What we know:
Mn(2+) 2 binds at residues 258, 263, 281, 342. This protein is of the alpha/beta class.
Amino acid sequence: MNIKISDIACDNIENVVVPVFEDGKSDYICDDVKAVINTLKNKEQFKGKCGEVFFFTKNGENNFKQVILLGLGKEEGLTSEKIRVAYSKALRKAKELKLQDLSVRFFESEKVCRKSRIKAIAEGMALANYAFNNYKSDKKESTIKNINVIGVKDEDKNKVQEGLDEANSLINAIYEARNLVNEPANTIYPETLAKRAEELGKEFGFEVEVFGENKIQELKMEAFMSVAKGSNHEPKLIVMRYFGDKANKDNVIGLVGKGLTYDSGGYSIKPTAGMVSMKTDMAGAAAVIGAMTSISKMDIKANVVAVVAACENLISGAAYKPGDIISSMAGKSIEILNTDAEGRLTLIDAVHYIIEKENATKVVDIATLTGAVVAALGKTVTGVVTNNDEFYSDLESVSKVSGEKVWKFPAFDEYKELIKSDIADLQNLGGKYGGTITAGLFIGEFVQDIPWLHLDIAGTADSNVEKEYLTKGGTGVGVKTLYYLVKKTVECKEKCCCNNK
Ligand code: BES
Ligand code: MG
Ligand code: ZN
């Protein structure tokens, strides 16, 4: 979908979305539409509540026009997230009407700055317009092809264009992440995931290096290898580097994404119902790859290295088994109590690697790690474990910009006791309770006290409903949050990125 700022004259517009506040402000709306709104409001047929949609047609001077009125709620309570949600509903209405081109009226408000406003409009519409139909013979689903944003004041055009450029970059990155998650495990396996990262590196200008089994062995990544060895697909360590601040090479943000291109559970095998969706177990990888494309495209002045330890967790004569004791790149020994707790094993070697070999000074890992996070927080909030409150507060503030909700789990020392093994340094299972915390803290054992955030996206990485700007399947969660987190650490220490003004 193509979204651009446009000056088309009112008379030439066929399909238009007109935003309306519940409390009346509508000075930018032409008189005849205003008259319709007033009549509808008097009859209580359309009140302008946030996300409320009303469709009508009218005879234009030259054209037969189709108008979608879109409620924005009370201006006082307007937020970026409300704008995203509202505009996604207008988009869905336009899709239902099988429109191809749509004009969308920009609006004024003191509550959300113009850059955030355009970003929220673009994101809400484009993300709701996403469709994954690579495999449908009959590609029936209608999508909107062009969106023209009209009514942007001349003096605002530069700023609004800047916002739109950033939004378009993030939208593309989220589409990429959703595609990677939605593709099945017979097309996305370590080699093809690595290839896609390489293609994107070329397209967006970041460096990609891919290590195969020999190099992984040489690095002594025994934890990663143990998970990988049950599969015929060779594991790949995908390393992506972007140096946007060469003068400050000792500040490197490390992003680590879980890249299980399939998780059967291994010998601790999953029931079929839980296994079907396990092609999504590389959503963390998809998020870091997507974020790298935007970080690079937007020339963020930061040094970022992203690492994905990509492999499959399967069963074979070579697979690792419950009861095995393995080592890790850091040299700590691990007793395997459950082969389905595999993500943390791949992540600890990736985390150790990114600190030791890529000199990361802060680390964020993002992973579809535990079913327990879904039990605790549901499907709309990402669970976080951290060793650093300041880093967490950065995350909290960018999460308000991205619209991706986060919640911090407690990480008291008592929980660390639960991952100590009787016969090895650690065990890969923390017992029955507090599974998200013990899984996170297992990774925390390998971060060497540098600021670290662990994002468990098992609940938020995919959606089982089509709702607001989410579509069924991969959500692309993490792309925006990682992007803004990287941007915040270098460009907007005070107020976050794109907050007002
Ligand atoms: N990939 C799964 C976690 C998961 C569950 C992701 C549901 C998305 C939806 C992970 O590897 C896993 O199997 N975790 C186990 C851990 C347990 C054995 C300690 C789980 O959550 O059941
Ligand atoms: Mg598993
Ligand atoms: Zn997994």
